[in-house]
Write a structure and sequence with these properties.
Strand order of the largest sheet: 6-3-2-10-22-21
Strand content: 15-25%
Oligomer: single chain
Number of domains: 3
Distance between the termini: 6 Å
Structural class: alpha/beta
Helix content: 40-55%
Number of helices: 17
Largest sheet: 6 strands, mixed
CATH architecture of the largest domain: 3-Layer(bba) Sandwich
Radius of gyration: 29 Å
Length: about 625
């Protein structure tokens, strides 16, 4: 396979002194690495189709590169919802996404294989496939292999406890809960079989305990076991539940504790698990708890392959990365999600959560686009929005930005909306509708919108002014043509009549209003909404139309609430809507083309006349 032996140094030096370089130097240095499409497209290999890996892959589907996504299974699952199907409240199809159908119409190659080793020196990934062992070379490597349970060398823990770290473990847990109750029915004298012990009262442990307590209500009827005989015990070494959750410290911990206790869950704080035996938990205070089922949610660590690869790791065995998510000492390797020891701008370690991974995947994808286009890379600075946890069928708690607290059905709705919003990012409304109907409908991935860097405010306002004037001119011209045919849609004429001023003043006022609306677009809709510029324009045009109908046109006696128009009122309303949509859609499209146009010019300007030298391994 062809590769570039100087790739790591070029990337490292391309960002080392960015502030001291001219624009062309900054962009040209990295671009020289990649602008060789006729000879060799860069090979990007992504390991793991979790939150970070899959969103990164989807963001690369229109990149001029060879992109391979390696995953052990043919599905993607929503880790934050696994505890619900694990106890039978959701169907497993609701929290999984079929990868072959999602990536079917993309240029991304999906390879179903288990990663067995990484050789960073030869830039090779070793795989175990159904056909046998294989090796895969890369120019760039994206590691999104997630985390593994941390057993802290506790004797018997790994052998005798279940975990909830992936889809297979959730299915196994679901089966084991019912198996335990069947064993109790056969041995009713062994009352300990109806006790489930959960080690670890973090987010996963607390959510699972709440779900199990609610599931027991149904299971007690199904198996004819009194509800009071079914127990859940939550053990943790801290003095409270959710002790490691910084966003939970104020109001969430007391409320969560109250909810769990009301469900009959026994909380055992301030003790650590000393060892695990079959159906027995030995605590470090000398006490023992017999249980029909033992579940461990007491912590996670980075995937062992990270440590074995030789990458620099922290004490949680997660790879140390820089602000661009590149592994320390290996700038051609990007590490995302639970595998990465990423930090905030203040240097604080980011928690291994879904919201961090979902942020990092698109950032990594955007940076690959930027390197190919010769633009500086983006830094990864996720904004922690808060935490939302479900504690059963009806109970839930949420804290947003450490300010807004919700509970009950509102928190439950927020959690569901977060899940469906993420699914919509993968496959749009079609995939969301399939999940609502509990179907695994073949749904192609959508192309996410590119991140266009913000320009200086005056420059953005200048482009918006140009876009607003052109959009208003199109709106006004068509309105004048409609007016000549007998339809009263000439807005400049209406404005001049209302102001009792010449027609030129009406055109000037209309242009000014159109410019102001375009400026509002810059502050409200400028790349903050997904979809195409035309879709944003449609929504923005609807707002402009309603504003005109409710405020402006009634003042002139020509609006929706006026009876002066008689039979022409409906036509005027329809024409006004179409005109405002035309204005907003065209202004949005012109603005975004204006923002992006000099990037395209710069890319052409910096394109080397000949390809860089290529060496073969």
């Amino acid at each position: 396979m062809e590769t570039h032996t100087d790739l790591p140094n070029l990337i490292r030096n391309g960002h080392k002194n960015m502030d001291a370089q001219s624009t062309e130097q900054k962009l040209g240095r990295l671009q020289q690495i990649f602008w060789h499409k006729n000879k060799h497209k860069p090979r990007i290999v992504i390991l793991g189709a979790g939150y970070a890996g899959l969103t990164c892959a989807i963001g690369l589907q229109n990149l001029e590169a060879q992109v391979t996504l390696v995953n052990q299974h043919d599905y993607h699952y929503l880790t934050t919802l696994l505890h619900e199907p694990a106890v039978g409240r959701r169907d497993f199809s609701e929290v999984t996404v079929d990868l072959p159908s999602l990536l079917e119409h993309t240029a991304i190659e999906l390879k179903l294989a288990k990663v067995t080793a990484l050789d960073l020196e030869s830039q090779t990934v070793y795989l175990s496939e159904a056909e046998g062992d294989a090796a895969l070379n890369y120019d760039f490597l994206v590691i999104g292999l997630g985390s593994k349970p941390e057993f802290y060398a506790i004797p018997g823990l790994e052998e005798n406890a279940l975990t909830l770290n992936n889809w297979n473990e959730a299915v196994r847990l679901h089966l084991r809960v019912e198996e335990t109750l069947l064993q109790y029915k056969e041995h009713p004298e062994e009352s300990w079989r109806t006790n489930i012990v959960i080690g670890g009262a973090g987010l996963t442990g607390v959510e699972l305990a709440g779900e199990l307590a609610d599931a027991y209500r149904k299971l007690s009827k199904d198996y004819g076991i009194p509800r009071k005989d079914l127990k859940v015990t939550l053990v943790d070494g801290s003095s409270t539940v959710l002790a490691s959750c910084q966003a939970c410290q104020d109001r969430v911990i007391p409320l969560a504790t109250e909810i769990l206790e009301n469900k009959g869950i026994e909380l055992v704080p301030n003790v650590h698990v000393a060892s695990i035996e079959p159906n027995r938990v030995v605590l470090d205070d000398g006490n023992e708890i017999q249980a029909g089922l033992i579940i461990w949610t007491g912590g996670v660590r980075g995937n062992p392959l990270i440590e074995q690869s030789g990458l620099e790791i922290n004490r949680q065995k997660r790879a140390v990365v820089n602000e661009f998510l590149q592994a320390e000492g290996h700038p051609e390797v990007f590490v995302l999600g639970d595998s990465a020891a990423a930090t905030t701008e203040n240097g604080d370690l980011l928690p291994p959560t879904a919201q961090v991974a979902i942020h990092q995947g698109p950032v990594a994808a955007e940076n690959f686009h930027r390197v190919l286009e010769g633009l500086p890379m983006l830094t990864s600075t996720p904004k922690m929005m808060g935490v939302v946890l479900s504690l059963g069928h009806k109970d839930a708690l949420a804290v947003i930005e450490n300010k807004y607290h919700f509970s009950g059905w509102m928190a439950r709705t927020i959690k569901n909306m977060i899940g469906y919003r993420y699914i919509a990012k993968l496959g749009g409304f079609k995939l969301v509708w399939a999940k609502l109907r509990r179907q695994n409908t073949a749904t192609p991935a959508i192309i996410p919108p590119r991140h266009i860097p913000k320009r200086p405010l005056l420059q953005r306002l200048g482009i918006a002014t140009f876009a607003g004037l052109l959009g208003t001119a199109a709106f006004s011209t068509l309105g004048s043509l409609a007016s000549s045919l007998g339809w009263p849609l000439n807005t400049p004429a209406m404005l001049s009549e209302f102001l009792k001023a010449p027609l030129a003043v009406g055109w000037l006022v209309h242009g000014t209003i159109g410019t102001l609306l375009a400026w509002i677009y810059v502050f409200v809709f400028d790349k903050r909404w997904g979809g195409t510029s035309l879709m944003r324009g449609l929504f923005y045009g609807l707002i402009a139309f309603l504003t005109a109908q409710v405020l402006v046109m009634p003042m002139m006696g020509k609006g929706f609430f006026s009876s002066e128009m008689g039979a022409l009122a409906p036509a005027m309303v329809i024409g006004s809507f179409l005109g405002h949509w035309l204005y907003a859609a065209s202004a949005s499209w012109i603005y975004e083309r204006g923002i992006a146009i000099d990037y395209a010019d710069l890319r052409t300007k910096l394109k080397p006349e000949s390809d860089p030298p290529v060496e073969s391994n």
